[in-house]
Write a structure and sequence with these properties.
Layout lengths: L1 H6 L5 E3 L12 E4 L4 E4 L30 E3 L5 E3 L8 H24 L6 H42 L3
Length: about 160
């Protein structure tokens, strides 16, 4: 099994669509060793970027990686230690575009759902305001009664001392 993996190294390729678009990466990859076709979403992030990882090559200078003078990162891209500048440039761009796309989509949804009031909304608001005022009036009347009772009670308590 491991010999098969070794012999098939770098033979897994994207499956070309009939409607191939140069700007979009392929959506299906053929994994030779496993004999399976997998969706792009099952592969590392690097395969979703504008520049797919090139096995055995530095993705910055395009020169071969020889004698452990470079590193392959989790995204699938590889860099020489001198070419790597603390971030994968292709994945950084991929994530930036994704964030911008999501923000634009969010803003469009917010703009579409503008605050437009219907006649029903206005009537409901008027009824709610009237009900609130009525409740406030009832509450203020009860508060006045309670204060009167407390005042009379205080007077009566003070008169007890005079008995």
């Amino acid at each position: 099994y491991f010999q098969e993996i070794f012999h098939n190294c770098e033979r897994s390729v994207p499956k070309l669509n009939k409607k191939a678009n140069k700007k979009k990466p392929p959506e299906i990859y053929q994994l030779v060793t496993l004999g399976k076709e997998v969706d792009l979403q099952c592969l590392p992030t690097g395969y979703s970027t504008s520049y797919s990882p090139q096995p055995g090559l530095c993705d910055q200078c395009k020169l071969p990686l020889i004698d452990d003078n470079g590193t392959v990162f989790i995204c699938g891209h590889a860099y020489h230690s001198t070419c790597y500048h603390r971030r994968c440039i292709y994945c950084k761009e991929f994530y930036k575009k994704g964030v911008v796309k999501n923000i634009e989509s969010f803003l469009k949804r917010i703009e579409k759902s503008t605050n437009t009031f219907t006649l029903e909304d206005l009537v409901d608001d008027d009824n709610t305001e009237m009900e609130t005022k009525e409740k406030d009036d009832e509450n203020s009347g009860e508060i006045d009664k309670t204060l009167d009772i407390l005042f009379k009670l205080t007077i009566e308590i003070n008169q007890i001392e005079n008995w």
